Structures are given as C-alpha cells and as structure tokens.
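We were asked to recover a plausible sequence for a given structure. The inputs and outputs are reproduced exactly as logged, with field labels preserved.

PROBLEM: sequence recovery
POSITIONS: 58
GIVEN STRUCTURE:
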C-alpha cells in the first residue's frame, strides 16, 4: 500500500510539473496512478481510524 501511495504522489508531482509537455496518453496514465495512490491513502486512513476506534473502546 505504501508503494501505491508513493507512486501516486510522484505521479501527481510529475503531472503538475510536466503536463504541458506530455502526450495525452502519458497524462492519462499518470492520472490513473495518482488516483490509485489517493485510493490507497484513503484505505490506509480508514484502516488506521478503525484501529484507533477499536483501541479506544477497550
């Protein structure tokens, strides 16, 4: 999961810096990677929140 988050972050940074010089195909690929990274981050946050909630109930 950490690798997916990292890849998404890097893809987003590359899109922000180089989008004007990239092909449409490259942009679409990086957007997919960035979205997957965001989904992975959201999954990790949800799992951590669930863990904290279960520990708080004890």
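RECOVERED SEQUENCE:
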């Amino acid at each position: 999961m950490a690798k997916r988050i990292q890849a998404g972050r890097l893809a987003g940074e590359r899109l922000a810096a180089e989008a004007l010089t990239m092909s449409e195909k490259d942009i679409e690929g990086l957007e997919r990677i960035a979205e997957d990274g965001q989904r992975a981050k959201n999954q990790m946050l949800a799992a951590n929140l669930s863990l904290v909630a279960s520990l708080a109930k004890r």
